[in-house]
Amino acid sequence: MAKVVVFGVGPIAEIAHFYLTNDSEHEVVAFTVDKEYMKCESFHELPVVAYDMLVDRYPPQDYKISIPISYKKLNTLRAERFADIKSKGYECVTYISSKAIYYGSHVGENCFIFENNVIQPFTEIGDNCILWSGNHIGHHSIICDHCFLASHVVVSGNVTIGEYSFCGVNATIADNVIIGKSNIIGANAVIFKNTEDYSLYSSKETEKSKIPSNRLRGF
User: Fold this and answer.
1) Percentages (nearest 5) of helix, strand, coil residues in the chain
2) Is residue 215 part of a domain?
């Protein structure tokens, strides 16, 4: 059991607090934000401390950190904060939902793996990754550092997803594919071949029908 300080006071920090409190052995004791974003002194009846006071108030020898920052700026904001936290001597907690199926070989620090993820044998997940609910991570796959997978992503067997990459809802990656670093694989995209670094793949949005809904029979 660790006493944990959560970075942020927004919706994702609130979600992290919920899962760590209700489905982990850890105890959330406080939140921290950059001083310029301090708009409250407490959140969920726990203290909020300015980030520049974190080491003094919650020293790394006694507390651990969770950094549930989203994929903004292609995960670089979370990566920068993770690096800074580590430079201060903190260990970051990793959460794997009790409702996930996990048979993997390795998960790094500051990962958040939500419910209904299926993670097959011989998989490796690097540091600072977020896997939202309901993904399939196939055998022998590697998810490198600082990635974000939205819900219902299918990663087939022996896939590598490069660092800083984002996979949107319902994206599918075929067997034996290497996704380059800093890729955006958009919602519903299907990838069959290796991708280059800094690539963007997006599927076409469903077009609106010319027939209005109130003219459909049976509705």
Assistant:
1) 15, 25, 55
2) no
